[in-house]
Structure formats: structure tokens, C-alpha cells
Amino acid sequence: QVQLVESGGGSVQPGGSLRLSCAASGFTLDYDAIGWFRQAPGKEREGVSCISSSNGSTYYADSVKGRFTISRDNAKNTVYLQMNSLKPEDTAVYYCATDVVCTWEEDLYDYWGQGTQVTVSS
User: Fold this and answer.
1) Under 8 Å between Cβ of 39 and 19
2) How does DSSP classify residue 101?
3) Mean pLDDT to the nearest integer, 7-22
4) Following DSSP, what letter does each residue of 17-51 receive, concatenated?
5) Is the per-residue pLDDT at 50 higher than 90?
6) How far, CA to CA in Å, does 64 sit from each of 28, 60, 84, 113, 122?
7) 39: pLDDT confidence band, cut at 50, 70 and 90?
8) Which residues pair with 78 in a beta bridge?
9) Do 56 and 41 contact (CB within 8 A), yes or no?
10) Are 12 and 69 in contact (CB under 8 A)?
11) Distance CA 24, CA 103 (A)
């Protein structure tokens, strides 16, 4: 059993920044990857980023490359998503999830957090 808790969401103006956190607890040795997904109103959930805990490999959706940075603190079992230059289209509920390896296939992720709301508006 793995538990994931997201935090750090909020409301910001365009161009602002937020840092999301995903803290994992429980038995995590079999789950190397932490992925970030988001779901905007009226849209399907989409992959945003993923990081491998074992080798540090990172992956980003084209829509966030150059603006978002994923990182990890293995000692704390915590993954961060630094979000800079935020745009209104980044508004969504952001979820973290864990899998054996990084993948864009949502169905392969075994555990999900509750989500945290990010709102970008002016």
C-alpha cells in the first residue's frame, strides 16, 4: 500500500510560480516512478511530467517544457514540480501517481493522490 499526498496548489496570476509537492509513504520500493498529471475543466486528464527515483531521468509534456521542472528528494520520498511562467491554460487539478517506470499511460499507475487545484487567472 502506497499513499500519495499532493500539496502546494493555489491561485496565481499569469507569469507566476508555484511549487507542487508529492509526498509518498508506505511501501514504495516497487514503485520507481512518480508522475504528474492534470485535468482541466471539461478536458481529459493528461500527463505533465515524470521522474525516475532510481536514475533521475525526467520527462515532460511539450506544453510545459521550459517552464516546469520536476525534481526529487529520495530521502523524503517526495517529488516536486516547480511551475514557472504559469499560463491560464495551466489551470487544472494536478495529481501525482506512482508506477514501476515512467509512462504516459495513466492506467498503469497503481496509486494516485487526491489532487491539488492550480488556478491561473487575472
Assistant:
1) no
2) S
3) 98
4) -EEEEEEEEE--TT--EEEEEEE-TTS--EEEEEE
5) yes
6) 27, 7, 9, 21, 20
7) very high
8) 23, 73
9) no
10) no
11) 18
DSSP state of 81: E
Cell of 64: 510545459
> What residues pair up with 3 in beta bridges, in sequence order?
25
Instruction: Specify whether the CB–CB gap between 48 and 59 falls below 8 A.
Output: no
Q: Which amino acid, one-letter code, is at 14? A: P
Q: d(Cα 57, Cα 59) in Å, to the nearest integer?
A: 7
Torsional class of 26: left (φ above 0), alpha (ψ -120 to 50), beta (otherwise): left
Residues 19, 104: Cα–Cα separation, whole Å? 22
Cell of 52: 525516475
- Kindly list the distances between the CA atom of residue 69 and the CA atoms of 20, 42, 58, 60, 65, in Å, as whole numbers in the listed order: 10, 26, 9, 8, 8
pLDDT score, position 11: 98
Q: How far is residue 68's CA from residue 48's CA, in Å, rounded to a whole number?
A: 9
- Sheet with 2-7, edge to edge strand ranges: 2-7, 18-26, 78-83, 68-73
